[in-house]
Specification:
Elements lengths: L9 H9 L2 H8 L23 H6 L8 H7 L3 H10 L14 H7 L3 H13 L5 H4 L9 H7 L3 H10 L14 H7 L3 H11 L17 H8 L9 E4 L2 E4 L11 H8 L18 H8 L2 H10 L14 H8 L2 H10 L14 H7 L4 H11 L5 H12 L8 H8 L2 H8 L32 H11 L28 H27 L18 H27 L5 H7 L1 H26 L4 H19 L13 H12 L2
Antiparallel strand pairs: 1-2
Subcellular location: Membrane
Membrane topology: Multi-pass membrane protein
Keywords: ANK repeat, Membrane, Repeat, Transmembrane, Transmembrane helix
Length: 641
């Protein structure tokens, strides 16, 4: 609020907010009073009441004039009358830099904008400067309308001034980019229709970090919203038997519209790291989008980013087998594409622990008759050496990827005589091929950690801070072998204790045995059968956990231990929960005959504590598949009731 404007009185603020025409007519002297309404409040005239001129010059604390308030609340006719009374109000900006048009566009009041624009034409008011006014975020009213998907508002604004679509905000985002990233297909189609026959620049479809609206369409392809006939969630069941699946407009539909604007540069334009939309599609495994882009321009498969990575490199790096096969089917010479280190997609696949090389070789073996060219392509790719003279086989050996090595060693085309320039030796025994895990490179472990927790789907971040297959959060330093050995010892000790306790509990059931036939006294009760099942699951899980840990103790490779330790940890957690469940069921079966309510409370308390422990780990989350073992215990006992 400028120093020249007084603070708006309460009566005027309420009248403008709720659209009380008679009150506004009295306070502002608007023409054409209108019929009285139930909300009309008579205001007694006094010498201290602000006059009409002062009311027009007043504003709220945030600088909103009466026209701002009327436009924000969609009172079109009152806004038109107010504008005719004082035309300067249309040019006034509040503390956020918003004009009345910004406010109307933000809340989707296309009628307000339409009436104001029409009346401005009648009064020969030059609207060009007003429409292009920007707020503190350097956004026009068209930015607001495009962001919130108001098609009617966009239609009014872009028809009045089509060059508004070329204005960008502080983040270099155009209205077309905002509509695309927010998934407003109708707005995207409308803007494209107005731009199709015009000469446009990069600003018309620009986004942050030199992205384009086509990049945004690829990212939106991971947000396809569908309506299912029925679906189940872990916290409840919802059935929609009479609801038909409704097809929603996806990123692919928006890409089809955006490609109408491509005159040879849009599809090939890269972001700040020179990553094209096809790189994005390869990274997030968007098959339909990749096919559409390749059909539009097959040369997109040969575009490299700032690191020299082509789309097939990215697909191999992320372990997307179907995407790699798609690129090879469209361009058989994709294996010849090299990055800045002189590596093809086979090198990249051998470097990452995703077993994509093994899967490719498996496909080549099955497709000898239907796709014989694939075998030849993989053969040539496996012989290629990078700038250091390293082959994919040597990279897999240095990384300690056993499955990839076994797959390569089975193939007769691998040349074992090749050595890299740093004299990396690779020994091979025809009868017993083995690779020492001690050859694992320390630097490779850091690379693996860097690529491990990548954001494949950018649902939470509309504006990625960095390129999808490069950016990741800071990783914790890799654990030492001594720390992993300590973990193994701790889990093994706990597993042995649980196995001992559950073994003893199986032969000392609650309630004891009958002296006549030796059967359990409480054996016919449902809770007793559930107790036995929980005890058995706890014993078996702890036994298997101990067995796995004994097997792991014979290996001294840190990377191997870290990958394989997840199984005994999961078994140990399951055994712990089932042991607590067996304890609670044992108390319940003994206390229920005398204290029913108290026994139920004890059972629920113990079960809650067990499940809370089970899901307090970072890698374990709530879900129906997580509680399945405990549901099975209860259901089986109930069936045998």
């Amino acid at each position: 609020m400028s120093s020249q404007r007084t603070l708006m009185c309460k009566d005027l603020l309420e009248a403008a907010t709720y659209g009380r025409e008679n009150t506004l007519t009295q306070l502002l002297g608007l023409n054409g009073g209108g019929s009285p309404d139930s909300t009309h409040v008579t205001i007694e005239a006094s010498n201290n009441a602000p006059n009409q001129t002062q009311n027009f010059q007043s504003a709220t604390f945030m600088g909103n004039t009466v026209l701002h308030i009327l436009a924000s609340n969609g009172h079109a006719e009152l806004a038109q009358k107010t504008y005719m009374k004082d035309r300067s109000l249309l040019e006034v900006c509040n503390k956020g830099g918003d004009t009345a048009l910004h406010c109307a566009a933000r809340y989707g009041h296309s009628g307000v904008i339409s009436l104001l624009v029409d009346k401005a034409h009648e009064l020969q008011h030059n609207l060009e400067d007003t429409l292009r006014k920007k707020n503190k975020h350097e956004e026009t009213a068209l930015h607001e309308a495009a962001r919130y998907g108001c098609e009617a508002t966009v239609q009014v604004l872009i028809t009045e001034d089509v060059q508004l679509a070329g204005e960008v905000n502080k983040n270099n985002e155009s209205p077309l980019y905002l509509a695309t990233i927010e998934g407003h297909f109708d707005v995207v189609r409308l803007i494209v229709q107005h731009l199709c026959n015009r000469e446009i620049t990069f600003a018309y479809y620009s986004g942050p970090r030199r992205m384009t609206a086509l990049h945004a369409a690829v990212l939106r392809s991971t947000k396809e919203l569908q309506s299912y006939i029925w679906y189940i969630r872990w916290y409840g069941i919802r059935l929609n038997f009479f609801k038909r699946p409704q097809r929603k407009q996806t990123g692919l539909d928006m890409a089809n519209e955006l490609l109408k604007l491509d005159r040879g540069s849009l599809a090939k334009r890269g972001d700040i790291l020179e990553s094209t939309p096809l790189h994005y599609a390869a990274s997030i495994e968007a098959y339909s989008m990749a096919r559409r882009l390749l059909n539009h321009d097959a040369s997109l498969a040969y575009c490299n980013d700032s690191l020299g990575l082509s789309p097939v490199h990215v697909a191999a790096l992320k372990g997307h087998l179907k995407m790699v096969v798609e690129f090879l089917q469209n361009n058989l010479d994709s294996w010849e594409l090299l990055d800045h280190r002189g590596r093809n997609f086979f090198h990249v696949g051998a470097e990452m622990p995703n077993n994509i090389i093994k899967q490719l070789l498996k496909i080549a073996g099955k497709a000898r008759s239907t796709w014989p060219e694939l075998r030849e392509v993989l053969c040539k790719a496996s012989f290629t050496r990078d700038n250091d003279g390293t082959t994919p086989l040597q990279i897999a050996a240095r990384g300690g990827h056993r499955r990839t090595l076994r797959a390569l060693l089975r193939k007769e085309w691998v040349d074992f005589t090749l050595t890299s320039l740093d004299n990396l030796a690779f020994s091979y025994d025809q009868s017993n091929p083995q690779v020492s895990q001690s050859a694992t490179d320390e630097s490779y472990e850091k690379i693996y950690q860097h690529y491990k927790n990548l954001d494949q789907v950018v649902e939470a971040a509309k504006y990625p801070k960095n390129w999808l297959h490069i950016y990741s959060k800071e990783q914790d330093p890799p654990e030492s072998s001594d720390a992993l050995a300590t973990k193994i010892q701790t889990i093994a000790l706990g597993s042995v204790l649980i196995a001992t306790v559950t073994f003893a509990a199986a032969f000392t059931p609650p309630g004891g045995y009958n002296s006549t036939d030796g059967t359990p006294v409480l054996g016919k009760k449902y809770a007793f059968r559930a107790f036995i099942l929980a005890d058995v699951v706890a014993f078996v899980s702890s036994f298997l956990s101990t067995f796995f840990l004994i097997h792991l103790g014979t290996d001294h490779s840190g990377s191997f231990l870290k990958r394989k330790l997840a199984t005994p940890r999961l078994l140990f957690a399951t055994a712990t929960v089932c042991m607590v469940l067996a304890f609670a069921l044992g108390l319940y079966v003994v206390l229920a005959p005398i204290r029913k309510l108290f026994s139920i409370i004890v059972l629920l308390t113990a079960l809650t504590a067990a499940i809370q422990y089970r899901y307090s780990k970072n890698s374990l989350r709530w879900g129906p598949h997580r509680v399945a073992p405990y549901i099975v215990i209860v259901l089986v006992a109930l069936i045998n009731k």
